[in-house]
Amino acid sequence: MPIKRVAKNTSTSSTAADAESINEDLGRRVKKLRADQGWSLDELASDSGVSRSMLSEIKRERAYPTLSVPYRIARAFGLSPQDIIESADSASSIQVARANDNAHVFRSDKQCEIRTLSPLNPKKDIEFYEMRLTVNGVLTSQPHMDGTREFLTVKDGGVNLQSRNLNESLAKRDFATYRADVANSIANSGKCEAVPSLVVLYR
């Protein structure tokens, strides 16, 4: 007599596996974010409105919270829910800033155009920008938070860099790093468009 095989409910198995994966990702992600911020469970509970017991279960990767819980935790860290529950695979995926994607244009006027090349995340500690300064164009910046530094490379043209009362002239392929927790400016010093790239490091 042939053995009757019972078909597995692959949909149910897949859903359970997905939930388990999201649960593990959430636990690891929240643990890292708390460590980065130096927050205790009590502090996160206070800022997010999620109970300490639930956060403790998430920490041990045992909780299966509703969507409102990752949303509240994400809001406490200034992130989106997707940032909180993203898997290791998605976090390591290639992120691209297309040249024709206006979403990455930070500023565009008669003085300059600035494109952000780093992920659009308000909690990042480092930012990458490409600038295009028109002839006589100037970018003037107010002081950032204490300890902030900027790293400038001139890809084309020439610029005059000022950090508080210090000045330097930079030509194509020159590099400079300077304090950005004081007033500073980058001015096109040539007769053609200047193209600097800028890295901002917050400490």
Topology:
Blueprint: H1 10-37, H2 41-48, H3 52-59, H4 68-77, H5 81-85, H6 88-91, E1 105-108, E2 112-116, E3 126-133, E4 138-141, E5 149-156, E6 159-163, E7 166-170, E8 175-179, E9 184-188, E10 195-201
Antiparallel strand pairs: 1-2, 2-3, 3-10, 4-9, 5-8, 5-10, 6-7, 6-9
Summarize the structure.
With about 200 residues, this protein is α+β, with helices and mostly antiparallel strands.
Structure in words:
This protein is an alpha+beta fold. It folds into 2 domains: 10-91, Orthogonal Bundle (434 Repressor (Amino-terminal Domain)); 102-201, Sandwich (Jelly Rolls). Helix content is 31%, strand content 28%. The chain has 6 helices and 10 strands, in the order H-H-H-H-H-H-E-E-E-E-E-E-E-E-E-E. Strands 1-2-3-10-5-8 form a 6-stranded antiparallel sheet, with no helix packed on it. Strand 6 and strand 7 (166-170) form a beta hairpin. The radius of gyration is 24 Å and the shape is elongated. The chain starts with 9 loop residues before the first helix and ends with a strand. The model is unreliable at 1-19 (pLDDT under 50).
Helix % is 25-40%
- CATH topology (level 3) name of the largest domain: Jelly Rolls
Percent in strands: 25-35%
Quick one: overall form? elongated
In terms of structural class, how would the helical and strand content be classed?
Answer: alpha+beta
**Strand order in the sheet with the most strands:** 1-2-3-10-5-8
What's the helix-strand series?
HHHHHHEEEEEEEEEE
Largest sheet: 6 strands, antiparallel
